[in-house]
């Protein structure tokens, strides 16, 4: 599982803390997937997805306002990436979860972790370099 490392820090304390929270949500999903004691993980999966949706909306709003306050030149392309992420998360079909819950969690985790990793290191870091 992906863990927070100092290299993810963009140098803005509030954004770094918000990014850490995204890592925590992903870690909870990973722990749920590993947990063999839950025979039905549906409600927990939905709970994690709802938290992920709510928190990313909050985080993206904050980050976008921060970029605008700095006059960040790549704001619009950055916002498009945020919008694409939210559309992907919102398009998750909860009816398909029951077919193979652990695979479903893994698919979500792979998407989220890959996105977080690349987005922070390749896009968010640029905010402070301008």
Please explain how this structure is put together.
It is a single chain. The protein has 130 residues and is mostly helical. The chain has a single domain, classed as Four Helix Bundle (Hemerythrin (Met), subunit A). It has 4 helices and no strands. Helix 1 runs antiparallel to helix 2 (42-70) and helix 1 (13-34) runs antiparallel to helix 4 (101-127). This is Bacteriohemerythrin. It holds the Pfam family Hemerythrin.
- The share of residues in extended strands comes to under 5%
What is the approximate shape? elongated
How many domains is the backbone divided into? 1
The secondary-structure element order is HHHH
By secondary-structure content and strand pairing, the structural class works out as mainly alpha
Task: Kindly provide the radius of gyration, computed on alpha-carbon positions and rounded to a whole number of angstroms.
Answer: 15 Å
Low-confidence segments, given as residue ranges, are: none
Estimated helix fraction: over 70%
CATH class descriptor: Mainly Alpha
Main beta-sheet strand count, sense and barrel state? none
In CATH terms, the superfamily is: Hemerythrin-like
Q: Count the strands?
A: 0
InterPro entries: Haemerythrin_Fe_BS (IPR016131), Hemerythrin (IPR050669), Hemerythrin-like (IPR012312), Hemerythrin-like_sf (IPR035938), Hemerythrin_metal-bd (IPR012827)
Domain Hemerythrin-like: 11-128
Keywords: Iron, Metal-binding
Family: Belongs to the hemerythrin family.
